[in-house]
Sequence to fold (259 residues):
Amino acid sequence: MSSTTPQENPPNEKAEIRRQNEMSIEEYIAMQPRLAWRRAIIRGAIRFFIMTLLCKVKITGEENIPATGSAMLMMNHLSLLDPVVCIGAVRHRFVVPMTKVENMKMPIMGSLIRWYGAYSVNRGEVDRRALTSSIELIKAGQLVLIAPEGTRQRDGLAEAKDGFVYVATKANPVIIPAAVTGVQDWMNELKRLKRPNITVTFGKPFKFKTQGRTRIPREEMTAMSHEAMYQLAATLPDPALRGKYADLSKLTTHFIEFV
Fold:
């Protein structure tokens, strides 16, 4: 009998990953109501085990997230814990996260991610399926979680990837900055028997001024991206994490409107 190495996924998990990757966006949207009980269980577990027992988490601005309708959380990305605490921080509706394909293949975490019903993206390339999934999920009234920078940025905010503004201008969601701090060294703190102090701050909701357009000139999309990232920077309570957007005197609102 052949054995499975730690780096490999068991055949049934490989089949499940393949099935989820091959699922049409229409099928995925249709199954959202059926995922509610799973998401409630996982969110409850996150809030109890991670956000209460293991860590001390302060949540601010949850009222800025609309109770229903098309919305997007734009999150800074410092560690694997960021999306977890964002999912746990929103109590009045479920967050639908995007995750890289590699995360779905992780031995334990991958199973939880798939069971929760996240959707995947191939990092490092233009994944049109992931972009389309994001757009259609938002249009269907979901609250989608996206890290505009595309990958972890431990030294502070970096420029957003093009896909962020592309999705936002096509789907026209309410955008809520989601600023997470205190997660950079959470594992080391736990090893020292210290409970990490984590904050999750939801900023002022806004939309891009598209005037009904779905095709936006590239230079305008770049300006939109910078204005959105400055909103995320302004939401971060730790100035050291604002990175490229540290100088808030450059914050403008020519292409966004608060809602």
Q: What stands out?
A: The CA atoms of residues 12 and 18 lie 10 Å apart. Confidence is low (pLDDT under 50) at residues 1-6.
